[in-house]
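Quick one, T. Sequence first:
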Amino acid sequence: MTATTQATGSTPVEGAYFRWLQLAMGIVCMAMIANLQYGWTLFVDPIDAKYHWGRAAIQLAFTLFVVTETWLVPIEAWFVDKYGPSVVIMFGGVMIALAWVLNSYASSLVVLYIAAIIGGIGAGSVYGTCVGNALKWFPDRRGLAAGATAAGFGAGAAITVVPIANMIAAHGYQSAFLSFGIGQGVIVFILAFFLRKPSRPMPVKKKQLNLPQTKIDFTPPQVLRSPIFWVMYLVFVMVAAGGLMTAAQIAPIAHDFKIAGEPVGLFGFQMAALTFAISLDRIFDGFGRPFFGWVSDTIGREHTMFIAFGTAALMLLTLSAYGHIPIVFVLATAVYFGVFGEIYSLFPATSGDTFGAKFATTNNGMLYTAKGTASLLVPLASLVAAKYGWQAVFIIAVALNATAALLALFVVKPMRRTFILGNEAAVDARARDVRAI
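Structure tokens:
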């Protein structure tokens, strides 16, 4: 295997706090694309009420969005490497605005699907660029940086879910699509002018024993040939499937459980169970991403995965048995999303640790396509629920999360360590042979 050794260049010419400013702007950009995924559930039933297309047909738009958002990230990452982050995020801002403007006028499923594809292209451009940029700026805190960036995507919808719900109720879902679509796109477009990658490689500090990190930069073709990449991909798909299903279907689930409008009082607040659940889900999701990223920087990626995936399985099991109780529905979904969102911090950090920083944007983009693969199961969840009930869907998700937890600890951990140490030993041996000659 041919691999380039990682540069250990000195601190870039930018000031010590410049990278934190880059991180902050990336987080805001991510918050602006959050509603394209997490706000979607609010529109499903209003669209169905107007056109009677059926939930499964409408949710196909969600699948098209996620597939496009994820599977094109490696291509978008190539443009980032060639032209820098600004132009790609600028393009993303235009596309996400156009998508929701089209949604506001869509009177056929074809237009709804086209808008979903356009939105996916835009969201992927922003998401892949911001996460990849964070990995490059923070090789010493990859878990925290990737988690904080992903938190913008996880929690970004928290502050707007109530206004969107109110606008849908007062003026119709078309007005919500139009107003929020234009506003989100403009903010991303403006911030794009100020985003940049490091002018020189950031220095990597000494690694902890329980946090193995490679000293080699593996190219994307080399990564695709490595078995550890595909095992990580499989685990990502297994966990993402349950989270995407829940995010897309939480409103239909609440309506089918007949608790959507039931009042729930928590922390001095009282609101309808569905609205409370979505708001709290976004807050917990946003908090969980940097928190678990930080935890993984301390105790290791795989140990953190085991804790999070196991907790997710427990919460889904709780929803299966007691989700028809409003307070349980609100709290269980909140905790679930608090531990689900960490996949968007742990897997990028694990990818950077395993395959190096130089090609981090593209390599993480390839791994991120697992989210698109998982999204293919979302419409199937509607069909399973229609025939067997939501309990059956939850049980399947429980099994996937429990299996993923065991794979992370007993398969990914030893394979990844062997991959890193084995390749570094091979490179060192070749270096010694060259010196001997």
